[in-house]
Amino acid sequence: MLGYFSFGYMFLNWLASGKTVHYDLSLAFENQIPFIPAFILGYCCVYLGMFVAFFVIDTVQDWQRTVVCFLIMTTACYVTFYFFPVKMSMRPDLAGHDGIFYSITRFIFAIDLPYNCFPSLHVAFPTFATLVAWKNHKTARWTLLAMAVIVMVSVVLVKQHYIADVLAGVAVSLGSFAITVKTERLWKGFFSDKRPGCALALDL
Question: If exposure means fewest CB atoms within 10 Å of the residue's CB, which of 33, 39, 46, 99 is most exposed?
């Protein structure tokens, strides 16, 4: 999952950087939303959220749903990134600004080019983790939900995503999870949890 995300995301980001046509999905008032560098910490909550999900989602069924939902959701986003390349046009110039928040933001901007915006995978990931954990992890689900909301707000305030990207990220996550649950009888046969010493294995 990590390899599929890392390679796919960076490759498509690089492809988008070479395209001549990019879309701008900003709303009329979005330029009035201030850039608040401290929210880069909220932006980074997505990584903490995935770390929490890794340790709290401990049932075989939930892990299977996690894998399938991740693949459906990420693939849907990759296809959209390629055919509908959206570019963030409101990134501020950070030159001359000092401080830890500006330094972190400058690093994020350097490694993550302003493409692959719509839908926001940064929003989709914590949202789908919340959905997977919602039924069987009644304490952790609120932590994951809080992190998802923080990420949704933060990606806008650090100018990494448009509001439309956030809404699309939530939508693709909800849709992918619904497809995962509805088609469970079809993909269930690909998994096996009967191998010794292995909580979850994928039959290929």
Answer: 99
Instruction: Give SS3 for 23.
Output: strand
- Tell me the mean pLDDT in the region 87-115: 93
pLDDT tens digits, 40-76: 999 998 888 778 888 888 888 888 989 999 999 999 9
Q: What is the pTM of this model?
A: 0.88
CA distance 80 to 117: 10
DSSP states of 150-172: HHHHHHHHTTSS-HHHHHHHHHH
Least Cα distance to 88 among 13, 37, 15, 148 occurs for 13
Nearest by Cα to 75 from 180, 162, 159: 180
Nearest to 91 by CA among 65, 72, 110: 110
User: Which amino acid is it at 42?
Assistant: G
Strands 201-202 and 191-192: antiparallel
Angle at which helices 140-157 and 121-133 pack, to 10 degrees? 170
Each residue of 16-40: pLDDT tens digit?
999 999 999 999 999 999 999 999 9
* Residue 86 φ then ψ, to 5°: -105, 135
CA angle centred on 137, ends 133 and 142, rounded to 5°: 75
